[in-house]
TrEMBL record:
Pfam families: ABC_tran, oligo_HPY. Keywords: ATP-binding, Cell inner membrane, Cell membrane, Membrane, Nucleotide-binding, Translocase, Transport. Belongs to the ABC transporter superfamily. PROSITE patterns: ABC_TRANSPORTER_1, ABC_TRANSPORTER_2. This is Peptide/nickel transport system ATP-binding protein. The keyword Cell membrane applies. The lineage of its organism: Bacteria, Bacillati, Bacillota, Tissierellia, Sedimentibacter. One of its GO terms (molecular function) is ATP binding. It comes from the Bacteria. It comes from Sedimentibacter acidaminivorans. It is a peripheral membrane protein. Residues 7-254 form the ABC transporter domain. Its main location: membrane. It is found in: Cell membrane.
Length: 324
């Protein structure tokens, strides 16, 4: 399978006044052409930071400390801002969390999408841009007679469709969606999930879906990477990770969503809180909350163990030790 994106040994840190936050550490994953990969975990586990680093959009105090991000075999991790600009939105695009509420209230939707298009195609003529906006509206299931409406004339679900249309404006090969259904009511959530699945069929692009909600992953993704405290702890097909999860954290996370196809109700919460990444725990970062922790878990970082079929688990219950 051809890879759209290859991330290896990625460390992303943030400098703050009290020290260095180790937000993402030793992260490895591939994104294959045409697949949809879910990044799941509690808030603060590094999902969004991982995504932003692949867009070259880390905040000013954030930086890639180590590692490689390859797109089409081209290394991006050392890109200058000018190099990022050539790639960002053209090759990889992102729908940011809550962005649908950040549309400019006094500008028509068509104007806002046109701005995004002309940024990348400065020579595009007005009628070409309009044609593209109509195409994009149709693609995301919006009524194309309404391109000149203002944001307040659209419902939350419609505004989320606009954000997806904007991200697709330059035909990217990779689309990242960060919590695409958060803040929408259940009916509208289902419609956005349907839209994501339709887009997966209609356009051959790769997707990364970021969410804390396993039910969304199970409906929209081929594979899942489960993140905890800046590390990927389990990675594999949706079936392997959900039906045959191996990592104690994944198992707890699934326990928190008893029926992933039904109503979302947290019945079991994971005791304790995620660690402070200014000073992450030694060994396995989950050891303070893990009911199965052993002595070795406190001192040694668990190495990824391959269960076959691309199912990787980083946990001492399954052997494998590294001193990294
Ligand atoms: Fe629990 Fe140890 Fe596995 Fe970490 S390595 S999840 S502490 S058993």
């Amino acid at each position: 399978k051809k890879k759209a994106l290859e991330v290896r040994d990625l460390n992303v840190f943030f400098k703050i006044s009290t020290g260095t936050v180790r937000a993402v550490e030793n992260v490895d994953f591939d994104l294959y052409e045409g697949e949809s990969l879910g990044l799941v975990g509690e808030s603060g586990c590094g999902k969004t930071t991982t995504a932003l680093s692949t867009m070259g959009m880390l905040p000013d105090n954030g930086y890639i400390d180590n590692g490689s991000i390859k797109y089409d075999n081209k290394e991006l991790a050392n890109n200058s801002e000018a190099e990022w600009q050539l790639y960002r939105w053209n090759d990889i695009a992102m729908v940011f969390q809550g962005a649908m509420n950040a549309l400019n209230p006094v500008k028509k939707i068509s104007f806002q999408i046109a701005e995004a298009i002309s940024l990348h195609y400065p020579k595009a003529k007005d009628d070409e841009i309009k044609k593209r906006i109509i195409e994009l509206f149709k693609l995301v299931g919006l009524d194309s007679s309404r391109i000149d409406d203002y944001p307040h004339e659209f419902s939350g679900g419609m505004r989320q469709r606009v954000m997806i249309a904007m991200a697709l404006a330059c035909n990217p090969r990779i689309l990242i969606a960060d919590e695409p259904t958060t803040a929408l009511d259940v009916m509208i959530q289902a419609q956005i999930i349907d839209l994501i699945n339709e887009l997966r069929k209609k356009i051959s692009m790769s997707m990364i879906i970021i969410t804390h909600d396993l039910s969304i992953i199970s409906e929209t993704c081929d594979r899942i990477a489960v993140m905890y405290a800046g590390n990927i702890v389990e990675l594999g097909t949706v079936r392997d990770v959900i039906k045959n999860s191996k990592h104690p954290y994944t198992q707890k996370l699934i326990g928190a969503f008893p029926n992933i196809y039904g109503e979302k109700k947290r019945i079991e919460s994971i005791p304790g809180t995620p660690p402070n990444l200014l000073d992450p725990p030694s060994g396995c970062r989950f050891h303070l909350r893990c009911s199965e922790a052993k002595q070795i878990c406190k001192t040694e970082v668990p190495k990824s163990v391959d269960f076959g079929n691309g199912h990787y688990v980083a946990c001492h219950l399954y052997g494998g030790v590294t001193n990294e």
